[in-house]
TrEMBL record:
BP-aspect Gene Ontology terms: amino acid biosynthetic process; aromatic amino acid family biosynthetic process; chorismate biosynthetic process
CC cofactor: Mg(2+)
Sites where the protein binds substrate: 65, 89, 111, 168
Function statement: Catalyzes the specific phosphorylation of the 3-hydroxyl group of shikimic acid using ATP as a cosubstrate.
Protein name per the record: Shikimate kinase
Organism: Parapontixanthobacter aurantiacus
Length: 202
């Protein structure tokens, strides 16, 4: 591309019209054959970036952890404490199966959900899976802001996240789309996801 300044008479330097962007997002929403399902480790941004993706598309958003909490009337931490991880995973499997039947917009999964074979197969079949990948130091910093993740309570968060990354990356890598969630603000990551989905569709 030339560095020559372009005149506004030609219209070439005009900022993209928000209406055009909105129309493109609307078209993408209409062409989405199945829900966008975000997967990846704790702190990658599935919940917060997922909300932004849904608001850009003007479509529904559902967070699987919140849906589990609503169904159980307890927080994720309370479920882990009262019943253990296996019980939580069984509830998670059932709730995500329901969300995959009911939801048409954007779904943020919990960090471990995609490692369940049944859940992963269902998401790969019935959704557009997007792995938000992220470097460990960023995940440690972000997850350190809140004490709400039971798996990080017993031990060194960096060691735990490093181990979980090694164990889970082969599962996350089955998602057809992978996006970096490390260095960009939420909105940029959300737009990168939508651009990748657009490419995936075409
Ligand atoms: N791209 C980003 N830029 C800056 N901060 C971010 C970004 N993505 C996420 N965060 C922040 O990191 C924290 C964790 O994000 P979020 O809750 O969305 O992660 P998650 O992937 O849903 O994690 P979990 O699997 O535990 O539910 C939040 O404070 C969020 O605002
Ligand atoms: O990575 C995980 O296994 C988890 C992530 C969170 O989203 C919650 O689903 C829960 O804290 C477990
Ligand atoms: Mg989340």
């Amino acid at each position: 591309m030339s560095n020559r300044p372009q005149t506004s008479e030609a219209g070439a330097d005009a900022a993209p019209s928000p209406d055009i962007e909105r129309q493109a997002l609307h078209d993408l929403r209409r062409r989405l054959p199945k829900p966008i399902v975000l997967v990846g480790l704790m702190g990658a941004g599935k919940s917060t970036v997922g909300r932004k993706v849904a608001s850009l598309l003007e479509c529904s958003f559902c967070d699987a952890d919140e849906a589990i909490e609503d169904a159980a009337q307890r927080s994720v931490s309370e479920i882990f404490e009262a019943h253990g991880e296996a019980y939580f995973r069984e509830g998670e499997r059932r709730v995500i199966a329901r969300l995959m039947r009911e939801e048409t917009g954007v779904i943020a999964t919990g960090g471990g959900a995609f490692c369940n074979n049944e859940t992963r197969e269902l998401i790969l079949e019935e959704g557009i899976a997007v792995w938000i990948d992220c470097d460990i130091d960023t995940l440690v910093e972000r997850t350190g802001r809140r004490n709400s993740r039971p798996l990080l309570k017993n031990g060194d968060p960096k060691e735990i996240l490093t181990r979980l990354y090694e164990e889970r990356a082969p599962f996350y890598a089955e998602a057809p789309i992978r996006i970096s969630g490390s260095n960009n603000p939420h909105l940029e990551t959300a737009k990168n996801i939508l651009e990748a989905v657009e490419r995936w569709l075409s």
